[in-house]
Amino acid sequence: MQALKLTILVTVFMKSIISISLLLFFSASSWAASLEPQIDTGATAWMLTSTALVLLMVPGLAMFYGGLVRSKNVLGTMMHSFAAMGIMTVLWVIVGYSMCFGDSVFGGWFGWNNDYLFLNGIDETIMEGGVPELVFSMFQGKFAIITPALIAGAFAERVKFKGYLIFIALWGIFVYNPLCHWVWSEDGFLFNMGANGAIDFAGGTVVHISAGVSGLVAAIYLGARRGYPLRQMRPNNLVMTMMGVGFLWVGWFGFNAGSSVSSGLSTAQALTATQVAGATGALAWALIELCHYGKATALGFASGILAGLVAVTPAAGVVQPLGAMALAVAASAVCYGALLLKNKLGYDDSLDAFGIHGVGGIVGAIMLTFFIRSSWMDNAAILAGGHWTVWDQFGVQMAAVGIAIVYAVVLTLALLWLVEKLFKFKSTDEEEMTGLDHAYHGERGYGMMNPN
């Protein structure tokens, strides 16, 4: 009888041990799994949408630029944007993402991570915010596409297609990727400058200033179009230009609001600032034209939209709607003045890449300092040990803008010289007279007898 009781007790004890062990095992497994980032379907859905919206900006830019050139150059000009979609995507997958978001190498000049090459190492990676890293990579890759495409507006109607492809490939590797690493990578030196880094929420410095300044350097280095400024070079299709700026405005919601890499309060703040700035910039430009010329033009309205959107790009996540409106008004006024100055100085920035993107980006990146929401400044003060003022941040912004300008000027000038000497970049007079469409693509954009 005693043996039976002992057997029963041992059996019960062993079953209890096994049950407790299994419970601890599955609890530990569940706890370990809970520590790993899980996909946030809401944030991921928004980032997928934002990625598509930013890509929409590229054909939007093609339409905007394509409508502004002469009819014999419309296809060639639009091809500058579409070609960037191809070549920059391939470069981004091979080395671009690694150079931008890898660990700093060569003293922080750019990043590098072998696991990022060809995106092989992020095939199953989920970021802390619950977004697959492949989605983040594709989102950032769209910025790498549109930035060199913006430059093309400065030298439209006068460059060889082959030379353009080589130039943007080199520019993306040696200018865009390092700047992106400095500003947006966690170990980039501009990201870590000051209490909370140089503020560039969605690309004022990385995209617009770099592209605008590089465009100005290219426009001056390559020289003016044949016949400029004595010969009038009217837009071939302002209707297409207006449609293009409309697509750009829609895409800009992904550009700015998507840069929150989330789906929450900061997303709403950036989206609101974007809409407000675009509308305010358009109205401000129209009012300036009415006062100056007595007429508000469609091209001016489109230019105002872009000026407002460009200016709010670096600030979208840190300013309130009133600040977005102030930045848009300032950008429209300063960009308008820059276009007048261009006419007096005589350089041929064909489609005002510098006058709007470069100047607007500089205005936004610097002036955002005076409209930062108080909660952001409070957080910066905490990180700085209790003291961080608007003027401290102003110094950081000025330094970041100055560094971006100097770096873009020096590297762009070097690349222009290299491409022109080895491959030829500037079109010949005969090719300009024929037009880009026929000279480089063997096609015509329109079925018209007169290509001019």
Task: Describe the protein in words.
69% of the residues lie in helices and 1% in strands. The protein has 15 helices and two strands. The chain has a two-stranded antiparallel sheet with strand order 1-2. The protein is globular and about 60 Å long. The relative contact order is 0.14. The model is unreliable at 27-33 (pLDDT under 50).
Summarize the structure.
The protein is about 70% helix and about 0% strand. With about 450 residues, it is mainly α.
CATH topology descriptor: Ammonium transporter fold
> Tell me, what is the CATH class?
Mainly Alpha
Q: Order of strands side by side in the largest beta sheet?
A: 1-2
In the predicted model, the low-confidence regions spanning at least 5 consecutive residues are 27-33
Provide the structure class.
Answer: mainly alpha
Name the CATH superfamily classification: Ammonium transporter AmtB like domains
> What's the number of extended β-strand segments?
2
Strand content: under 5%
Radius of gyration: 26 Å
Into how many domains do the coordinates divide? 1
CATH architecture: Orthogonal Bundle
Number of helices: 15
- Along the chain, the helix and strand elements come as HHHEEHHHHHHHHHHHH
User: What profile does the largest beta sheet have?
Assistant: 2 strands, antiparallel
Task: Kindly state the percentage of residues in helix.
Answer: 55-70%
Q: Ends: how far apart? A: 112 Å
Mean pLDDT figure? 92
Shape estimate:
globular
